[in-house]
Design goal:
With 420 residues, the chain is α/β, with parallel strands linked by helices. It has 17 helices and 14 strands. Helix 14 packs across helix 15. The two termini are 23 Å apart.
Length: 420
């Protein structure tokens, strides 16, 4: 493969990605490549990443326990601070145990890979679930079937054809590219009926939904009704790492069978201590969650005023679907000129023909900033030839992204784009 030729093709197709330099902490305003901008693409939803108590906790942990852990947790890396955070997470979710992982990606791979390793197991995953969940299915090596996004009837049909087999249902609660919420009550009932295990990734819901920010399951009154809750420490909690909250037996099983835990260095003490401080702040200051919800409502209303259709979002994640990848990039760049940074999601992150700007609201945004952002995005869209009120043609997306991950390999993004 000619690497430079491949990069040139990605640029031509609007799929090239580069890392931008951010000066200072994560928002809501940052200096991006030397230019002051309003940040609308950060998962620092509650603004805790640079909170003084979180910073101080991380600094104190570095002085007390050092920066690194020296190895995997089962070898040399499980420390007092890890146990403290696991106990607090278990109490937060009302589960018997919690098990830390190095990142959300590693947690998804490890949990799904371990639970789906039973001989003859069938894994059923929402087609728009995060790539890490699909990759976990591939790691398990089990037969995997994708059900249409949020379609419980389709899921029931797939399960009905696999009577007698071990089954695992895998889904996000809040879908990061769509901003919508899974039909959790129906999924719980279906899992019970078919004696299937249910794994729910709450990474984009913890700190954002439910009483006290305990997530979409808590909002639906379903705490304790699923086998494993995967949560992130790197989003609303502003630190780094992830966890699996579950009963004690499941936690012990994962500690022995999660390959990503067994083969990864333990999370560093500063990040763990920072997450612990952030969790304390979330419990003490639930009004931060209320502010986030109100801000998301404000931005949706302002976008609607500009003529945008926000694709059914009900959370702090708000997609503006424009269709073409190149158009999404052009609108992003035009918005940047106006001081608004909203990242463009393109294949393979989303299906061909559904490229979008994905806006991420923070509790620390002001209403005036969100109003300004909607106006800038409206002008940027018009300048690039996209009329918000006209919308974008709906294309078939079922199975496009999911299928790309089932063989354990990321899709060829050049070919995905050409298929759009």
């Amino acid at each position: 493969m000619d690497l430079q030729q491949h990069l040139d093709e990605l640029k031509e197709l609007g799929l090239y990605r580069r890392m931008r330099l951010v000066s200072g902490p994560q928002g809501p305003r940052v200096v991006l490549d030397g230019k002051p901008v309003l940040l609308l693409c950060s998962s620092n939803y509650l603004g805790l990443a640079d909170h003084p108590r979180v910073r101080e906790a991380a600094a104190d942990a570095a002085m007390r326990w050092g920066v690194g852990t020296g190895g995997a947790r089962t070898v040399a890396g499980s420390m007092t601070v890890h146990r403290r955070l696991e106990e607090r997470i278990a109490a937060f979710h009302g589960t018997g145990a919690a098990l830390l992982h190095g990142s959300g990606y590693l947690a998804s791979l490890g949990v799904v890979g371990a639970l789906a390793s039973e001989p003859g197991a069938l894994v059923l995953v929402d087609e728009l679930a995060h790539a890490s969940l699909h990759d976990g299915c591939a790691l398990a090596g089990a037969e995997t079937r994708a059900y249409r996004h949020g379609d419980v009837e389709h899921l029931a049909t797939l399960m009905g054809s696999a009577a007698g087999r071990p089954k695992l249902i895998v889904t996000d609660s809040v879908f990061p590219t769509e901003g919508d919420v899974a039909p959790l009550e129906e999924l719980v009932l279906l899992a019970r009926r078919h004696r299937a295990r249910l794994v729910v990734d709450e990474s984009h819901a913890i700190g954002c939904l439910g009483p006290g920010g305990r997530g979409a399951l808590a909002e639906a009154g379903l705490e304790g009704e699923v086998d494993v809750v995967i949560g992130s420490l790197a989003k609303a909690l502003g630190a780094y790492g992830a966890y699996a909250a579950c009963d004690v037996t499941t936690a012990r099983f994962l500690a022995n069978r999660s390959r990503t835990l067994l083969a990864s260095t333990a999370p560093p003490p500063p990040a763990v201590a920072g997450a612990l401080a952030a969790l304390d702040l979330l419990v003490e200051q639930p009004h931060r969650v209320d502010k986030l919800v109100a801000n998301a409502d404000t931005l949706r209303a302002e976008l609607a005023r500009e003529g945008f259709e926000t694709a059914g979002s009900t959370t702090q994640l708000i997609p503006i679907v424009v269709g073409d990848a190149g158009l999404a990039v052009r609108i992003r760049e035009a918005a940047l000129e106006g001081g608004i940074f909203a990242e463009a999601l393109r294949p393979p992150t989303v299906a061909p023909g559904t490229s979008r700007l994905r806006l991420a609201v923070m509790a620390s945004h002001t209403k005036a900033e969100l109003r300004e952002a909607a106006q800038v995005l409206g002008r940027a869209a018009l300048r690039c030839g996209f009329r918000p009120a006209a919308g974008v043609p709906v294309v078939a997306t079922h199975g496009v992204r999911a299928a790309a991950f089932f063989d354990g390999q990321a899709p060829d993004i050049t070919e995905v784009a050409r298929a759009a």
